[in-house]
Amino acid sequence: MAMRRSTAVLRLMEAQRRPGLRYLSDSRGRILGEEERAAENVYIQKMEREKLEKLRQKAEKEKVEKEKAEKKAEGEAHKS
């Protein structure tokens, strides 16, 4: 516990001296560099954009299908 606390204090002191340095780690526990962190952010943003695009396409498809169903219902109502 004391070792972790002293390590955290040293990291905080180092971060104050060099504000651009981040102490974030990946799943393996190693510290990520700024370039790795930037690449990770770009990847996350790309995945979010792709997810939003899929949702947008799905909503558009549902809208078109709904309009077709409404037109079909109107056509059947006029025939009766």
Automatic annotation (TrEMBL):
Q: Which InterPro entries match?
A: At2g27730-like (IPR045284), ATPase_inhibitor_mt (IPR007648)
**TM helices/strands, residue ranges:** none
Q: Does the keyword Mitochondrion apply?
A: yes
Question: What protein is this chain from?
Answer: ATPase inhibitor
Q: Where in the cell is it found?
A: Mitochondrion
- A Pfam match is IATP
Which keywords label this protein? Mitochondrion
Question: Keyword rRNA processing on this protein?
Answer: no
What are its GO cellular component terms?
mitochondrion
One GO term in the molecular function aspect is:
ATPase inhibitor activity
Family membership: Belongs to the ATPase inhibitor family.
Gene3D superfamilies documented for this protein: Single helix bin
* Primary site of residence: mitochondrion
Q: Where is this region: Disordered?
A: 54-80
